[in-house]
Write a structure and sequence with these properties.
Blueprint lengths: L1 H21 L20 H8 L5 H5 L6 H13 L7 H15 L2
Length: about 100
């Protein structure tokens, strides 16, 4: 009887832990107002693709640069960090960033 009680109890604890963990969420704070992306062509694509990995704070705090600089940043996000962004979407994002956050 004792042998069956141990595994059964362990199974019940694991099930209860799994159910409790499934109900938990971690609310993320809203981005700061200064991190709101500037309106313009490509803003929605940029927001959609970029905020799946980081906040918009990260975008607006980058040094200003031309399209070549922003292309380097976007390429790094894709090749180094594995951002799942298509070539066409990357082009749209680079154009948006160079226009709105260029030097």
């Amino acid at each position: 009887m004792r042998r069956m009680l141990g595994p059964g109890l362990l199974l019940m604890v694991l099930i209860a832990s799994t159910v409790a963990a499934a109900d938990k969420t971690i609310p993320m704070p809203a981005d700061h107002a200064y991190a709101a992306l500037k309106p313009g062509a490509g803003v929605e694509m940029t927001r959609q693709q970029c905020v799946s990995c980081h906040s918009t704070d990260y975008i607006v705090m980058q040094p200003r640069g031309n399209a070549k600089q922003w292309d380097g940043v976007v390429t790094k996000m894709i090749k180094v960090f594995g951002a799942p962004v298509s070539d066409q979407d990357a082009k749209t994002i680079v154009e948006y960033l160079a226009t709105q956050y260029g030097n």
